[in-house]
Every structure is written in structure tokens, then in C-alpha cells.
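Lab notebook page, bench 4
Experiment: in silico fold of construct C2
Operator: M.H.
Input chain length: 196 residues
Purpose: comparison with the prior construct
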Amino acid sequence: MDSLGPRIKELRLEANLNKAALARRVGVSDVTISYWESGAIRQIGHERLVALSQALGCPLSRLLEGENGGRAAPLYLRSQPPAPWQDPAAGRIELPFELVPAQQWEGECFLLTPAPGEHFDFLSEGDLVAVAPTDIFHQTGLYLVEREGRHCIRRVSQDDDGKLLFSAEESDRVEGYTPDTRLLGKLVARWQTAPL
């Protein structure tokens, strides 16, 4: 898997920018750009990634996808099944470790964004999420869930007895597992759009 540092350098050269020019556009020092490109700094926050993609004139997905950058567009997440990755043309992404060091995920990931007019807890229009398809609970976090025949995003946790608990974004109400509830995928990374 390609690392993020070489991709930043490749995109910077494609954009015909030196490190100082890119640094000014992103709002960091040229030393920081050098550290990013060399991999000395492996964690880059969402706001910096967005600023970096804007300064490089490329979509954020290209920054995240490596050598296939720009080819696999984010898939639209809709409230109605099927899951977006069930489309045979759906492109998976390689998720660079340095973007989500807390996640130890091996397997497929898909880049999703809410479809126009669709609303989901924990996601706003334009947000991007990397979702790893799974029907197994791995750890407390956000999951794509099918409930009552509709897709939703829920924070999933376990109680002391091992029963799954589902909670919405702005609700104190916690729901338990029901026979019509299915885990579809775990959100392993989320990039939120910043208000302008």
C-alpha cells in the first residue's frame, strides 16, 4: 500500500508547486510539508487534509486512494437498501494507516458520502466516511445498521451482559437489538466538512 507522504509529494509536483508555495496555501510551514512527505509526521488532521486537497487541486478521495487516485469516487449512502458496496462497480479504497492509527482494520473499505437529500445521524452533507463491511460487532463505535428495512448510522456498544446497544446522535434513548436489526459495516474513519 502506498503511504500518504509520497502521494502528497506526487500531487504537489503535479500541481507544479514547491514546498513553500504549498505550505502557504495550507497554512503550515514548509518544514511541515517536508515532514508529511517524508512520513516523519504520519497523522494529519481532517482540516489539514481538506486544506491540502484544496491546495493541490484534487478531491480528498484522491489523496486517500493512492495510485488509483481520482478513479474511485465516493459511493452514495442511501437510507434504502442495498448497501452501496453491493454494486458490482463499487470501488474499494486502501485506507492509509497514518490516517486512522487507532483503527486496526484489515479488509475492504469503501468511501461513502450521504446521497443528496439523504440525512443520517453523525453525518452531514459532504462528509466522507470509510466503511468496512462487517456483520460482526468489533468494538464500540459508529456502524452502518439496517433497522426496520432502512439504513441508519448508530453508535453501537455492549452492555455488561454482552447485548448490543444502539444509540442515535442527539438522543439519550438507547435501543436494544431487535430481530430486524443487522450490522452492515463499521465506520473506521470519518472526515467532516468544516463550515465555511
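Observations: The first strand starts at residue 75 and ends at 77. Residues 99 and 116 are 26 Å apart (CA to CA).
Next step: discuss at group meeting.
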